[in-house]
Amino acid sequence: MLIGELSALVNAVFWALTGIYIKRAGPGVKTAQVMVTQHWFAALAAIFLVIVTAHLDDAFRMPLWVAVLLGGGAIINTGGQFLFFSALKTGNVGVVYTTTTGLFIVLSLAASTLFLGDRVAPVALMGAPVIIAGLYVMNVIGGRTPAGGTEASRKATFVALGLSTVTAAVWSIGLLTTAIAVRETDIWSAALVRNVVPAIMYAPFAFIFPDLVPWKATRRVQLHLAASSLFFVLSFITFLYSITRISPGLSALLSSTSPVFALGLAAVALKERLTRTAVVGAGLSLVGMVVVLSSR
What we know:
Largest sheet: none
Distance between the termini: 9 Å
Radius of gyration: 19 Å
Strand content: under 5%
Structural class: mainly alpha
Helix content: over 70%
């Protein structure tokens, strides 16, 4: 069965829904507020899940080195989020997104093969550049701005590309450490450590900047942040499950198709207009996805 691959694709859908509800919360919502809310919600959900699945004892019996890998992976991914958002603020969104995603796919596939001994079918590898090409068409060609930028804008683009490259590398390391650790424990215990650590990290920021706490937001914003946080948790659980069933590199490849699902969901939920370029790019990525799935 393709349960691992399907789990990675479900992860992509949930991640797209996470973004949809952030967008519905409105432009006044700060990125830091979203991150604090999501990780606090995820930490509470992880505690609940580890109790109801009767894995609380397993979590406390987790080997120290496994906990360190999971906690370290959480810190690494949190740092990657900061770098990614910094890149988005500095450079072109489409270029940043495509560069980060494309490099993350390549580095994750390479790390999965070199360090975990996983093998990805040649057919699946053929699908990877097709997916990346689709993302390029969606995010870069579809969002292209007029040429002739200033020296400052060219410098900003160079900085953004550098940040995107480092982000992809950092996220690949986070994926690798998590994939190694989750082989030695269950996904519920892994989810607990991975979500509690960043929740604790964000606590001081909430005290220093009280406007970041979710209960300071309006009722409408709170509902959308809660929905986004719920899908954030579901996306993480399906991601963890997928890397226990298939190669982490393959999981990263399929999970990176999230923009394709976000495109359709945004058209329905946010009434965003579908451009011809975006549809072509999404179609390319879907073809790459089918190629990857056909390898099984």
